[in-house]
C-alpha cells in the first residue's frame, strides 16, 4: 500500500503550523457531524495505543485464514475498472505504476509497482520469487538473499526498513518493469492473488455482489489490507464495525454504511497520512449515490475530487508514466492464477523451488 497523499499531508501540516486559519480545514473530507474528529465518531475505533502497538506474526502468514469464506467471480471489464479506479487514488491517474519505486520513509523500505509492494513487508519478495520462477535469469533475483534476510526479521522490527543492502534495486525494478511484460504480468498475478481474490471473498461474505461493490471492496483491501498484524485498520475491522448486512437491506444501503465507517476510520486515525486520504472514500460515495448508473460499472465513472474519468478502455499494459519507450511488440502474457497467501505453508510466499 502506498499513499500518493503523503507529500500533501506534510504540506498540510506545514500550513497548519504557519497559518492557524488552515488548521480547521486541514482535512476537508473530515468535517461535518459525521466525519469530524469527535468522541461520537471515533470512540469505536479505540485508536489510543496506535503508535505503540505492533502485532507479531504467529504463523507462516501475516494474513487471516479465509479459506472458509465463499468465493465469487469478477468479469474482465470490472477487474479493469476496479484496478483503474484504485490506481487513480494511489497514483493520481490511469497510468499503471508498474515501474514506480520510492523510499517513502514509512518504515517499509522501498515501495514498488502498481499497488505498492514493499521490501519491508515481504510482498516485493513474493513478486520477485514468482517472477524468477517464470524467468530464472533476471536483474532482480540477486536481491533475493537480502530480501529473505529482511523477511526473517520480526514483523515489528524497525530494521525491516533497511535498504542499505539493496543498492541498485530501484533501477533494477523499474528497468525490468519497462522492458519485460512477464514482470508486469507477474505483478498483476500477485496483486490478484493477494488482494483481488480476497476482496471478492470478503464482499461475498456480506452479500456484496454488484460490480461497483466489488470495486469498492478492492479499493478498501488495497488501502487497508487484510493482515492480522494490522488489526486496527484492516478490512475485517471495517466489516465488523459496519455490522451485518441486514436481512432486507439493499446492497446500496449496506455499502453506504460500509463506506461511512471506512471514512470515519480514516478521519479518526491520529496521524497526518490517513485523514487526507478520506477524499478517495468521498469519491466512492459519490459513485454509490448514482447507484442505477454505476452499479454495473458499465459506463465511465468520474472521480470528481481526483479530477479523473475512468472509461474502461484505457490500455493498462504499459507504465507510460515511468517508462520512456515502449518496446516494439509489447504484449502481456496470459494471466496466471496464483494461490491466496493465507495458509501454512504459504504457497504464494514460498521460495523458488
Ligand atoms: C529505519 O528506521 C529507523 C528507526 O525508526 C531509523 O532510525 C532509520 O533512519 C530508518 N532507516 C531507513 C533507511 O529508512
Ligand atoms: C542493514 O542491512 C545491511 C545489509 O544487509 C547490514 O549490513 C546492516 O547491518 C543493516 N543495518 C541494520 C541497522 O540492521
Ligand atoms: C443478498 O442480497 C440480495 C439482493 O441485495 C437479496 O435478494 C438476498 O436475499 C440476499 N441474501 C442474503 C443471504 O442475505
Ligand atoms: C495495449 O497496447 C499494447 C501495445 O502497446 C497492445 O499490444 C495491446 O493489444 C493493447 N491492449 C488493449 C486492450 O488495447
Ligand atoms: C495465523 O494466525 C492468525 C492470528 O492468530 C490467524 O488469524 C490465522 O488464521 C492463522 N493462519 C493460519 C493459516 O494458521
From TrEMBL:
InterPro entries: Glyco_hydro_46 (IPR000400), Glyco_hydro_46_N (IPR023099), Lysozyme-like_dom_sf (IPR023346)
Signal peptide: 1-23
An individual GO BP term: carbohydrate metabolic process
SUPFAM superfamilies xref list: Lysozyme-like
One Pfam short name: Glyco_hydro_46
One MF term in the entry's GO annotations: chitosanase activity
Protein name, as recorded: Lysozyme-like protein
Amino acid at each position: 500500500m502506498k499513499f500518493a497523499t503523503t507529500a500533501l499531508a506534510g504540506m498540510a501540516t506545514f500550513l497548519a503550523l504557519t497559518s492557524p486559519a488552515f488548521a480547521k480545514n486541514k482535512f476537508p473530507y473530515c468535517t461535518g457531524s459525521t466525519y469530524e474528529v469527535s468522541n461520537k465518531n471515533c470512540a469505536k475505533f479505540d485508536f489510543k495505543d496506535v503508535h505503540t502497538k505492533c502485532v507479531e506474526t504467529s504463523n507462516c502468514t501475516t494474513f487471516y485464514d479465509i479459506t472458509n469464506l465463499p468465493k465469487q467471480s469478477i468479469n474482465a471489464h470490472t477487474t479493469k475498472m476496479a484496478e483503474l479506479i484504485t490506481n487513480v487514488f494511489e497514483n493520481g491517474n490511469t497510468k499503471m505504476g508498474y515501474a514506480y519505486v520510492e523510499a517513502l520513509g514509512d518504515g517499509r523500505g522501498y515501495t514498488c509497482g502498481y499497488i505498492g509492494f514493499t521490501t519491508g513487508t515481504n510482498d516485493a519478495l513474493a513478486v520477485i520469487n514468482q517472477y524468477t520462477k517464470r524467468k530464472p535469469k533476471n536483474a532482480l533475483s540477486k536481491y533475493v538473499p537480502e530480501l529473505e534476510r529482511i523477511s526473517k526479521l520480526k514483523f515489528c522490527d524497525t530494521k525491516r526498513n533497511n535498504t542499505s543492502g539493496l543498492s541498485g534495486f530501484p533501477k533494477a525494478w523499474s528497468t525490468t518493469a519497462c522492458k519485460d511484460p512477464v514482470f508486469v504480468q507477474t505483478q498483476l498475478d500477485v496483486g490478484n492473488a493477494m488482494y483481488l481474490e480476497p476482496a471478492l471473498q470478503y464482499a461475498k461474505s456480506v452479500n456484496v455482489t454488484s460490480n461497483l461493490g466489488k470495486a469498492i471492496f478492492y479499493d478498501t483491501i488495497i488501502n487497508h489490507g487484510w493482515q492480522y498484524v494490522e488489526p486496527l485498520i484492516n478490512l475485517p475491522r471495517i466489516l465488523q464495525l459496519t455490522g451485518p448486512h441486514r436481512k432486507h437491506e439493499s446492497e446500496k444501503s449496506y455499502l453506504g454504511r460500509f463506506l461511512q465507517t471506512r471514512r470515519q476510520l480514516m478521519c479518526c486515525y491520529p496521524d497526518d497520512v490517513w485523514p487526507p486520504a478520506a477524499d478517495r472514500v468521498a469519491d466512492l460515495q459519490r459513485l454509490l449515490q448514482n447507484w442505477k448508473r454505476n452499479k454495473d460499472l458499465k459506463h465511465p465513472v468520474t472521480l470528481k475530487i481526483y479530477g479523473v474519468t475512468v472509461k474502461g478502455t484505457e490500455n493498462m499494459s504499459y507504465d507510460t508514466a515511468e517508462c520512456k519507450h515502449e518496446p516494439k511488440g509489447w504484449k502481456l502474457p496470459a494471466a496466471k492464477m496464483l494461490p491466496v497467501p493465507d495458509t501454512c505453508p504459504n504457497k504464494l510466499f514460498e521460495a523458488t523451488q
